[in-house]
Every structure is written in C-alpha cells, then in structure tokens.
Specification:
The protein has about 100 residues and is mainly alpha-helical. The protein contains seven helices and three strands. It has one domain. α4 packs across α5. It binds zinc ion. The site of zinc ion has 8 residues, from α6.
C-alpha cells in the first residue's frame, strides 16, 4: 500500500523533497505521523516516528534520518515544530509554561 503512494527508493524520495519540501507533510499524513505544534499550531513532522514508519519501506533508518532532518517541516521534538524548536526564546517560554 505504501509503495503505491511513496517513492520506491531513497533517491526518489530525496528528489521529491528537494523539489517540494512541503510534500513531506503529505508523506507524514499517509503514515499517520503528522503533528501540530504545541506553540504555534503549525503542522509539522516529528522525525523519530516518521523514520520508524518509513524504515520498513526503505530499510535504511540512518539514511532516512540524514535525508529528513534537513527538511524544514521536520522537528526533533514530538511536541513542537522545528521552527519553534530552533528558537531558544520560544522554547524557554514553552518549558516555563509547562512548569506552571
Ligand atoms: Zn511551532
């Protein structure tokens, strides 16, 4: 099923994402890995579950991780998007809010 929607190999996936970084959101929707940022409510893709979901398809979790982590919609966090995660000021605020 996934093979019908997603590119058949990592190179094809890389090409797809180079052409249109936003298509990562579609890929993530297909494998049910789409998240919503707890801070700015932007749609984003937490990298860990996405790599886990795509690994059976491509069989190369290291390659997948290296390929995906440069995508602007990827976040290392599962709760907040990469844009907020990259902003230490916002991140601090978020952590303080959680402690309240
Ligand atoms: Zn955000």
């Amino acid at each position: 099923m996934l093979h019908l929607i997603l590119p058949s190999d990592l190179d094809a996936l890389r090409e797809l994402l180079d052409e249109n970084p936003e298509s990562l959101l579609d890929v993530a929707a297909v494998v049910n890995c789409l998240g919503t940022c707890g801070l700015c409510e932007r749609r984003f893709v937490p990298v860990a579950p996405l790599v886990e979901s795509l690994e059976p398809l491509y069989g190369d979790s290291k390659g997948l991780h290296a390929l995906l982590r440069h995508n602007q919609y990827i976040s290392l966090s599962e709760a907040i998007c990469g844009f907020c995660h990259a902003d230490p000021g916002l991140l601090n605020m978020f952590q303080k809010m959680k402690k309240l």
